[in-house]
Amino acid sequence: MPQRAATIVGGGIGGLAAAVALHRRGWRVEVLERAARFTEIGAGISLWPNALHALQALGLARSVRALGAVERAGGVRDRRGRWLSRTDNAELARRFGHPLLVLHRADLLRALAEALPAGSLRPGSEVSGVRHEGGRPVVEHRGGVSRPDLVVGADGLRSAVRRALWPGAPGPRYAGYTAWRMVTEPLAEQPGEGAVTWGRGERFGCTALPGGRMYCFATASLPAGTPSAPSEYAELLRRFGTWPDPVPALLAAVPPDAVLRHDLYDLPPLPSFVHGRVALLGDAAHAMTPDLGQGACQALEDAVTLAHCLDSTPDVPAALGSYDVLRRPRTQAVARRSARLGVLGQLAWPPAVLLRNTAARLTPARATLRAMTPVLGWTPPGGPANLTENGGG
Prior knowledge:
This protein is of the alpha/beta class and 393 residues long.
């Protein structure tokens, strides 16, 4: 049987994970990335147990864990710094099989890229068209034309693949708030616990990275299209500089030119993630707000599931139909849950804030973990380690 070929459009976490999964199952892969380099800048990423199960299936769990820091404890605080809820991460690992791991996005992307043949990575290859001819997909890009057996659209929130083959699908919708992301310089003493502090229409969160650094993020409810401040760092100091410890010390350790700001969007539900021999994956299929920390985690799940379906069924369109059945309901449910949490986190009306905080304080930690089981309890189809890692997972 001739080697099957896949073109993956988009060289982010989901696209590279799909390429790794297919490559390790014998596919010839090419990853088309419009940027000049395969890299991510400026921010950390949380990998929950379901993502680590996916990485174990890709044979990369051990190497990725070596790049990150296991969050030992965390929780939610109110604007005065009082704990509303705590997370027992030892219990998280016991219940779901892996801990919560935090690392820099660039490190995860590099680990995925290094698991692929160098010739499969094609930066500077912006896609200009995707269509079907005679039942086969055709991808036009800066480097030429590709006619693979399969196309994976992993090109993000404003996916060119989705626009080409799902022209009637609704576009991204603004979530109602903007976000800042930043990584501190190494600290002499890291805070002992990660935390998200809830204010009124604002939040500030932090978690530890390796090397004494902290990944921090902040949100604020703003009208869509609010222009950037002359200095986003100064804007952060204005909004959060008097918040309870350790927020002021963390901001003081952030390089002023290292603050990224992005308005947050999600994607209305699509009726299908599949069109012929083309499948959408990650944000291109189900972009969600970051409130559950599940965007990249769900993309990793997508990649492993897609490879499993293609391995189980030699007919590509039939395999993609199975992928759609497995992934669309789950990811759209996770996206809805994330959006609801975002609405709660951004509440600004004082009576609603009081009610939210009281409910959080009265909810037992075990109940919170139990409620997360539908999200975090995922394991790969076909078994937790169906792609064996050299030396184990």
